[in-house]
């Protein structure tokens, strides 16, 4: 019985709250809407806050409250974890209000929204590049900001994601046995990310790809391609003299030499 009464009480409060909110939406009292938008925002009722802010943004445009309304309109979407819309509105905000006291925070959070929607390495990385560009620009414009250390950390995270994607894409050609394409893709990955944590493995895969390409070639091309494999061996062993791949690399070198002879 008590539980039944409690549920009825919650329902009554909810219906009353919804009715009150609907009246605010239909009201032409913009001072009231301004007040209620912030009340909803501070109560973390971000959906309601965003809807009311959406109504009053054009009303307060050109006034001394214009930047405040626009900023919290954007932040209402951030509070909802709708980072696509939040990033869009925050970007518009700092571009339209560069001298607002909220501009610094809006620019940082806009970049952070791109960071949050950056997908796993196997997917398209457009938002990852956008986040890196946005954080880099932010650091350039605000070198003394409290957010600089975090921005640099996020850039490093994003670059690691690009390194992983590049590595996996390049290795895919090798796994498929497309050794000619593999050599190009692996070298491109090394060139694009010279300090990659996968550098040793990528260089060894280049060596293997050259060897397997040579073995599968027609007789007229074998000598030239085995010579390229030997050259790759010298490059690999010079950079990684104590590599975990040293024995396999030496086997490839000796096999290639026997073919050239």
Short description, anyone?
The chain is mainly α and 261 residues long. Helix content is 79%, strand content 0%.
Give a verbal description of the structure.
The chain is mainly alpha-helical and 261 residues long. The protein has twelve helices and no strands. The longest helix is centred in the middle third of the chain and has 28 residues. It starts with a helix and ends with a helix. About 5% of the residues have low confidence.
Task: Give me some keywords for this one.
about 260 residues, elongated, 12 helices, mainly alpha
Secondary structure elements and their pairing?
Blueprint: H1 2-26, H2 30-42, H3 46-60, H4 66-79, H5 83-96, H6 103-117, H7 126-141, H8 148-175, H9 179-192, H10 199-215, H11 219-239, H12 246-260
Helix pairs in contact: 2-3, 3-4, 4-5, 5-6, 6-7, 7-8, 8-9, 9-10, 10-11, 11-12
User: What's the total count of β strands?
Assistant: 0
- The number of helical elements comes to 12
Terminal residue distance:
95 Å
Mean pLDDT level: 92
Structural class of the helices, strands and pairings?
mainly alpha
How can the largest sheet be summarized?
none
- What is the subunit arrangement here? single chain
Share in β-strands: under 5%
Low-confidence stretches: 4-16
Question: Which word captures the global form?
Answer: elongated
Rg from alpha-carbon coordinates = 29 Å
Order of helices and strands: HHHHHHHHHHHH
The residue fraction in helices comes out at over 70%
């Amino acid at each position: 019985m008590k539980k039944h009464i409690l549920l009825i009480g919650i329902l009554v409060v909810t219906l009353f709250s919804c009715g009150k909110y609907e009246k605010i939406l239909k009201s032409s009292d913009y001072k009231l809407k301004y007040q209620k938008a912030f009340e909803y925002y501070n109560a973390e009722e971000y959906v309601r806050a965003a809807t009311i802010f959406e109504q009053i943004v054009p009303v307060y445009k050109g006034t001394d409250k214009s930047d405040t309304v626009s900023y919290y309109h954007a932040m209402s979407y951030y509070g909802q974890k709708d980072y696509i819309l939040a990033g869009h509105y925050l970007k518009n905000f700092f571009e339209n209000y560069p001298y607002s006291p909220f501009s610094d925070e809006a620019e940082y959070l806009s970049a952070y929204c791109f960071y949050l929607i950056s997908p796993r390495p196997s997917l398209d990385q457009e938002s990852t590049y956008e986040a890196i560009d946005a954080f880099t620009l932010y650091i350039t414009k605000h070198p003394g900001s409290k957010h600089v250390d975090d921005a640099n950390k996020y850039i490093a995270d994003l670059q690691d994601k690009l390194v992983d994607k590049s590595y996996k894409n390049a290795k895919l050609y090798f796994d498929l046995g497309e050794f000619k394409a593999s050599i190009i893709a692996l070298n491109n990955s090394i060139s694009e990310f010279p300090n990659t944590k996968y550098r040793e493995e990528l260089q060894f895969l280049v060596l293997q790809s050259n060897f397997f390409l040579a073995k599968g070639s027609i007789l007229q091309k074998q000598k030239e391609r085995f010579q390229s494999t030997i050259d790759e061996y010298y490059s690999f062993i010079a950079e990684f003299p104590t590599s975990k791949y040293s024995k396999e690399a030496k086997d490839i070198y000796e096999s290639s030499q026997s073919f050239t002879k």
